[in-house]
Amino acid sequence: LARIAPPQQAITAYTKAEEFLAAHPAAARQIAAQRAEFQLAHADQNAGIRTLIDLLLSPPASPDPVALEARRLLRDCHRASATAATQVRTAWRTAAGPEAPAWLDLPETAFELAIAWIQCPTWADSRTFWDEHAADLRSPETILALEELALAHKAAEQHLRIARAATADTPDAAFRPYVTGELLAIWIECPTWQESQAYLSVHAKDLLHDQAAALLASDNGSAEGAIHFALLRLARADGIPTAYRYIADRTALNERVQGLLATPDSRLLSACALLELFIHQDDFTATVHLSISAILAESAQEPPSWPTPTPSDRDRALTEITTLMGRSPQHAQALGTLIQSILTSTTA
Question: What is the DSSP letter of 331?
Fold first, then answer.
């Protein structure tokens, strides 16, 4: 209709559509932006400018692609001629105050740079792009462009946070959560333990830190996440080759556990227990060591559901706990309760 009807008939149709869509504000805003674009080109330019400003002064709480489009249309109009620029600034002054927004003067190059950065295929590539264009990406123009793109695009919002953090702190700190998450995902997907060890060795600097461990710790619903969390913790303490030896060699893992019971360390004992559970499928022993680590860490825990042990496994566990009571008398009461739980459950 806008292409074939007289302008006023098209404006009337736009207006009626907005009225009919009153119960659907997002759709009504889209129609209003289209009406404004039509007015700028074919009808009343001042009316179109006022409509766009009204849309920008009453944004919804959620992401608003209409605001992004409204800014673009106003900026295009502002650039069109000196007369149009005056119209836009006058209308803005009347509706919103004396200072016209800085985004009215944003050059397209700022958007082109921001979009090129956002379109980097990986976070590692994104970091490289930052290093190559840091001065321009930190500029007020690019920050404004990112703010505008973030009105409608989550990726732009992420990059805006990174740009601000890299400016306030360091690029390493700003990119680390994103690069780390990406590297962890690749590491977890390695098809063999040999390839996994090689990957961790290459990326040790990027993965053997607290933030990587925290990201893996939050993935407590998957065996893969738990295994790699344990590997990361043990690699930091014992070295990468030794940590992977615990996967291949059950005896080596048991020797490490005994050492940790002799000099109690709840964090490393928990990591070893995760390997006992998910790699070596030793459910009872792993449950014992996870329970001990929780007691040593003085963290609240639910009473464990005990897998059925062999008599020798049960006797070894009771001996370990009894010996630990002498080494860690402050935990003797909790350890005694653990012994009683094992005896009650496994006897039944």
Answer: G
